[in-house]
Amino acid sequence: MAIQHNVGLSLIFRLELLNSNTTFGKLASIIGEAGGDIIAVDVIRVTRETVIRDVTINVSNRDHGKQIVSALETEPGIKVINVSDRTFLMHLGGKVEVTPKIKVKNRDDLSRVYTPHVARVCEALHEDPSKAFQLTIKRNTVAVVSDGTAVLGLGDIGPYAAIPVMEGKAMLFKQFAGVDAFPVCLDTKDPDEIVKIVKSIAPIFGGINLEDIASPRCFEIEERLKEELDIPVFHDDQHGTAVVLLAGLINAAKVVGKKLENLKVVVVGIGAAGVACSKMILAAGVKNLIGVDRPGILNRNEKYENEMWSWYAAHTNPDNITGTLADAIRGADVFVGLSGPGVLTVDHIRSMAQDPIVFAMANPDPEIDPELAEPHVRVMATGRSDFPNQINNVLCFPGIFKGALQCRARTINEEMKLAAARAIASVVTDEELSEHYIIPSVFNKRVADVVSEAVVEAAYHSGVARRERWDAGSSNIF
Ligand SMILES: NC(=O)C1=CN([C@@H]2O[C@H](COP(=O)(O)OP(=O)(O)OC[C@H]3O[C@@H](n4cnc5c(N)ncnc54)[C@H](O)[C@@H]3O)[C@@H](O)[C@H]2O)C=CC1
Ligand SMILES: CC(=O)C(=O)O
Ligand SMILES: [Mg+2]
After folding, report:
1. Does the annotation flag 444 for ligand binding?
2. May I ask the CATH architecture of the domain 9-91?
3. Ligand positioned closest to the Cα atom of 339
4. Are 405 and 179 in contact (CB under 8 A)?
5. How far is Cα 474 from Cα 192, in angstroms, rounded to an integer?
6. Which of helix, strand or coil describes residue 332?
């Protein structure tokens, strides 16, 4: 299996070049000799003496970028004005904005969208708050709520550092499913306070997507909010990840010709994502599931402070084995990583059963470098966009919320999650299915639609949809 991935960084070097000293050929050869790969050149300003160019160069990492700056600065006719990072440029001023749906063209429009006529709509909502689903953005808006305590695999980096990820999620909600989403990063880690704040802002939202909140607090926060709110509350790192993982597992098992109930699965990282993925794996029929975290294999001989680990040990590990990952993974069919980089080695993979399936899903760096793992595995997947088989919750959260909002579901239940997983798996047809293609691309436009349709059906079937099927969504004022 050939894995290709993008080079590390794409930097834009703004250079002032003295016409008398420096030709473009000379510039290109300095960059080439320093190992840089020029991918674009723009002319910014030309005078008789100088030309200012933006040269976009792929480099392997920041140090490599600095080496190129040094190489350029040793040349008398070249001045490095500035170096910018294309990724940072995409974040300048944030990535989302609020756009009105109606243009206010005259005083008549103004009097209707705002005062005085808006008052009648306010009164209608005062009389019947459930009309917020018809007459406000509640109908199609989700809050992406984080306290910044488990941002990707970067850990507790705080609410400001969480903003770029939450803005990214908001963008993806809109682009893939037409759902409006707003990032809400909270400057508190106190579960009571988080529950209180989310409850207080809930009137404006049709759903709450909890994101990157560390375990085990995330379990309590989600449970309490689910109980106390009548809109879907969905911890994406738990359930979005679990839905997509199950879709990938269904298809990977088909590729290797094994049945789910016969698989031995090892999950490393029994945190938010690991627990939910494990529950989904059990619900799908897997019997031999073993969890590993920092203390080693979770087993019934130990007492854990983390209550979830005690629950986990009681419901998995049928032979109650103990030890390390090396002990757990011997003879395993599937490795699922939701922990951090460097956890899995080639020796571990070599000890797995025939046709190993490795889902190294930690972000941004997987549990093993896929290029190292590749010669030893049958099916390899990561959470990243720059490798094949991307198992990432972005395949789930836009479509599952689109469906839940459409039928005005009061919750997102197990039936809806299983329907979403099967829908994602079904996008890859039997003819298309292969080691390199177990999961549809996040850019496959069908995914959000098939997921939302399956979710709507499951919501009606399980009795949590509140919108009558015949309700076209218009507003009856009498
Ligand atoms: N591909 C995807 O769609 C998703 C990937 N993830 C990734 O999964 C990882 C975990 O995320 P969360 O569950 O939200 O975090 P979390 O903080 O709730 O859980 C992480 C767990 O991994 C354990 N862990 C970390 N390093 C370990 C090691 N070396 N050995 C054994 N256990 C270790 C921790 O003790 C903790 O229990 C992150 O890297 C995150 O980016 C999370 C959600 C979705
Ligand atoms: C993808 C995602 O939600 C995470 O890595 O946390
Ligand atoms: Mg996340």
Report:
1. no
2. 2-Layer Sandwich (3.30)
3. 1
4. yes
5. 38
6. coil
In this structure, whether the domain defined by 242-478 belongs to CATH 3.40.50.720 is answered with yes
Residue nearest to atom 29 of ligand 1 (CA): 343
Query: Which residue among 209, 212, 387 is best mutated to probe the pocket of ligand 2, counting the most ligand atoms within 8 A of its Cβ?
Result: 212
Q: What's the confidence (pLDDT) of residue 22?
A: 86
Q: Write down the pTM of the prediction.
A: 0.90
Q: Is 339 in the pocket of ligand 1 (CB under 6 A)?
A: yes
Residue 212 assigned as binding residue? yes
Query: Phi, psi (5° rounding) for residue 38?
Result: -75, 125
Confidence of residue 21 (pLDDT cuts 50, 70, 90): confident
Q: Which residue has the tokens 């550092």?
A: 161
Structure tokens at 67: 């080496």
Round to whole Å and give the CA distance between 269 and 308.
12
The active-site residue, picked from 79, 131, 138, 169, is 169
State ipTM: 0.98
CA dist 235 and 147 (Å) reads: 13
**CATH for 138-231, options being 3.30.450.180, 3.20.20.70, 3.40.50.10380, 3.40.50.2000:** 3.40.50.10380
Give per-residue pLDDT as tens, 205-217.
999 999 999 999 9
For residue 275, the CA-to-ligand 3 centroid distance in Å is 14
